[in-house]
What does this fold into?
Amino acid sequence: MSFRGKEMMKKLVKRVGAENITPELKEKLKACVPDAKVVMGRAKRGLYAGRHIQYGNRISEDGGNKSRRCWKPNVQDKRLFSYIFDRHIKVKVTTHALRCIDKAGGIDEYLLKTPYQKMDTEMGLFWKTKVEQKYAELGQMEVAFFTPEDEAKFEQGFKDLNIAKKDARREARRKLYGKKGGEEKGEEEASIEGVVGSVSHQEDDHGWLEAKA
It folds into this structure.
């Protein structure tokens, strides 16, 4: 294994954890880590699905003159949901990798189905190892089955809990907006009383002036 392959292997073992990798899985990683293939630096931080920078010639239309140029893959920042980890994974992916993920049925299925030799980036190998490790842990967990009566009880309990939450929110809104409505009503009554008092005062003054005349 070349120096570049050894460094990639060290990083993978360090990120996943040496105690979490079985010897068989370690041998698989060693056999599938790219040895001399040219991989872009930024491809180490994403899922590129074999799409990397390509080099070629730009040919002019007039004289057929050739000049060197390169083609870079279309890279997007995406948040992909993982059902195994029950959270979103923020990763840089190419549009080709997105099509492969959609075709596989999700990021978990893509990582599980894609062989190690096609995962030619550090992040791809890292997430594939983590998903396989988590999948093995889930496979060893005990599964409990409930009777239909217990399931009906659980469903009724969730319904009662949702109803209680709705009632609590409704009561909180009633207290909040009811208090504000009472304050506004008191202000309106005070303003109406002030207008009535000013009108009555004007009428008294007018009557006093007529009596004096």
Q: What stands out?
A: Helices lie at 3-16, 23-32, 95-104, 107-113, 122-140, 148-212. The mean pLDDT is 77. The first helix runs from residue 3 to 16.
